[in-house]
Amino acid sequence: MSWINARRRRPAAGYAALLLGLVVVALAYGALTSSGSVSQASAAVGAQQDTAAGKRLFQANCSSCHGLEAQGTSQAPSLVGAGAAAVDFQMSTGRMPAKEVGAENERKPSSFSTREIHSIADYIASLGGGPAIPTDQQVDPALGDPGLGYQLFSANCSQCHNAGLSGGALTYGKDAPPLTEATPTQIYEAMLTGPEAMPVFADGAVSPQAKRDIIAYITQTRVEPNPGGFSLGRTGPITEGLVIFFGGMGFLILVALWITAKRRDPRPTGME
Questions:
Q1: Closest residue by Cα to residue 179 from 195, 196, 163
Q2: pLDDT, tens only, 62-117
Q3: Are 160 and 176 in contact (CB under 8 A)?
Q4: Residue 16 burial (CB < 10 Å; 0-12/13-18/19+)?
Q5: What is the pTM of this model?
C-alpha cells in the first residue's frame, strides 16, 4: 500500500488521471452525438435527392417556358428568387403548368402529386430567395380570430374577392377567383406571393397572426348555414343591384303601361 501511495504522489499520476478523464468524456460525447449526426446527414442527403428529383421534373415539365435553369424566357418570367411558396401555390391549384402562354390562369385539378410539387418547390428554393411553404401551425384556422379576420378581410380583400368569397371581375379582363375551394395553405401562400393581379401582403404589412385571422374568417364563413331568404348565391352587392335594377325597372314599366293604357268606352258607338 505504501508503494501505491508513493506512486500516487508523483506529478505524472495526476496528469495521467486527467488525460484518462478527458478520453472518457470524449468517448461519451461522441456516442451521444453520433446518432444526431447520422440523422442530420441522412436528412441532408434526402433534401439533396428531393432537389435533384425536382430539377428533373422541372426540366421535363416547366423548362419549355421558364428555361432549363429557371432563368426565364420570352414566354415566362425567371423563377430565381420566386421561392417555394409561389411554386406550391401555382402548381397545387393547377394554374401551372399553363395551357396557354400569356393568359390568366384559372384554378383546375393539379396533375402532380404533393411530393412532386414539393420537390420542384425545393429545387426553385435552392436557386435562392423567396418565401418558403408555410407550416401547418402557420395556417391553422384554430389559432386565428374570425372577428379580427373579418375586419382585415373587409379592409384588404373584399373589394376584389367579394364579402361572400365568390370573387369578382377586375380591370383589363382579369378577375379575382372565388375562395370557396382554396385551402388554408393556398390562402397564406397567395398573400405571401401575390399571384396574378393580387398584391403581395408581406409579413411587414399583414403579420403572420393577421394572416391566420383572415384564414379563420374565410374558413368559418364557408361553412356558415344560409340564414334564409333570397340569398342570390351570396354573390354580393353587384348581383343584388342588378336584380333590383331590372326587377324594379320592369315593375315600373308595367305600372306605367297600366296607368296609360286606353280604357274601352262603355257607351255604344253612335249614341249621343
A1: 163
A2: 999 999 999 999 989 999 999 999 999 999 999 998 877 766 778 999 999 999 99
A3: yes
A4: exposed
A5: 0.70
